[in-house]
Amino acid sequence: LLSMGTDRRWRAKLVALLPDTPGLKLVDLATGTGDVLLAAARERAKALHVAVGTDLSGGMLSVGLEKIRAAGFSGSCFLTRGDALHLPFPDCWADAVTMAFGIRNTVDPPAVLREMARILRPGGRALILEFSLPEHPLIRGGYLFYFRHMLPLLGGWIAGDTGAYRYLNRTVESFPQGETFISLMAAAGFTRMRHIRLTFGIASLYIGEKTEEQTA
After folding, report:
1. Domain that holds residue 151
2. Selection from 28, 36, 77 nearest residue 55 by Cα
3. N vs C: which end of the chain shows fewer Cβ within 10 Å?
């Protein structure tokens, strides 16, 4: 309801910015049902060697596993249950780490960023997609009215869960955005950070790299 279906385009943008490393090793955090993995397998098939998605929800991983099997990517895409604060990967293992709409829901986002940096090889790339707020005052005002008042009502009517959408607007409004989030990435050891505002700023894509000299 919040993205109105544009989240697929946002994920496509994320996948397009994956590094062109031959034999690419990708880790996707808070993978849910594996949408980022599947997009990467379809769009970056020539470069992708292995893609591993982690999530705390066994139920979502089960659905994702069926989607991966149905799409024919069981040989390159794998799912495992895991905590973004304690990732089951060795230091400097991945060429890219992604996270779509998950870091806002973690109990310690800076620690998650440090874990992402730990498992990335030097020169590897982190790509983080998250909801944000428009900067333009008129767009922001209209969006906040929809976000705070209309979206919970629609969520209650369509999904039967008003509370989840009230949680959504509270967490999006309070989560660090833009340059504030970039500063968290810098503190975790990333460099060459930038962010791209998507669809008038209702989502943001953050990009950072692990320096060649950096160790975990």
Report:
1. 134-173
2. 28
3. C
